[in-house]
Amino acid sequence: MDDFYKDGDDPTLPRRNGQIDWESPASWDAENAVEVIAQLVRDGKADVPVYAINEDRRVATRRFDLADAPLFVAEGIFAAEIVEECRRRDLLAGAYALRRPRSATFLRRLSRDLAEQRKGPRVLLSRGVALLRAEPAVLRRQTGLGAEAARGREVLRRVAHLLAGHPPAR
């Protein structure tokens, strides 16, 4: 879902302290994300954007083909923003917000962002610390939007139940 950010020159992007607020759900194109998910459910394939975070823009599209997979996972920090709409359209098998130690999330995010050279190291470090502090509020927001807080193993167990043709076990 990270490829559905708006381009950096989009005039609707939210700002905070004179800078684009990339942590705001308003920096993300939820409507397009839902349309692509609907197309994947309906047709099994869709063209999805390719977003270059270091350039703050979409640079291409790529064909995503489910190849007869019975389920797919749409994940990202703003995925909970579309839970209600996906439920309304009957596109959703489950919605989960990962609950794990904040330090683990911080280290994984920082390692990924540095490896992908998403931004400069100082920006990534300060952004990472800010997100570390905000993580409890993010989890509360995601569960408030309809995602269920769960540890990774629990999510995998529920997905396995779905793949076996059973409703999610609680």
Summary tags:
170 residues, alpha+beta, 2 domains, two-stranded antiparallel sheet, 5 helices, globular
What features would you describe in this structure?
- With 170 residues, this protein is α+β, with helices and mostly antiparallel strands.
- It has two domains: 1-92, no CATH class; 96-170, no CATH class.
- 41% of the residues lie in helices and 16% in strands.
- It has helices at residues 30-43, 83-88, 102-115, 121-144, 152-163; strands at residues 15-16, 19-20, 45-52, 57-65, 96-98, 148-150.
- The chain has a two-stranded antiparallel ribbon with strand order 1-2.
- A hairpin with a 4-residue loop joins strand 3 (45-52) and strand 4 (57-65).
- The longest helix has 24 residues, at 121-144.
- Residues 1-13 have a biased composition (Basic and acidic residues).
- InterPro entries: P-loop_NTPase.
- Residues 1-21 are annotated as: Disordered.
Query: What's the rounded overall pLDDT mean?
Result: 90
C-alpha-based Rg, rounded: 17 Å
**Distinct helical segment count:** 5
Shape: globular
Strand order of the largest sheet: 1-2
Oligomer: single chain
Flag low-confidence runs: none
Query: How many DSSP E strands?
Result: 6
Q: Give the biggest sheet.
A: 2 strands, antiparallel
Taken as a percent bin, the fraction of beta residues is 15-25%
Distance between the termini: 26 Å
Task: Please give the share of residues in helix.
Answer: 40-55%
What is the number of independent domains? 2
From N to C, what is the helix and strand string?
EEHEEHEHHEH
Q: What structural class is derived from the secondary structure elements?
A: alpha+beta
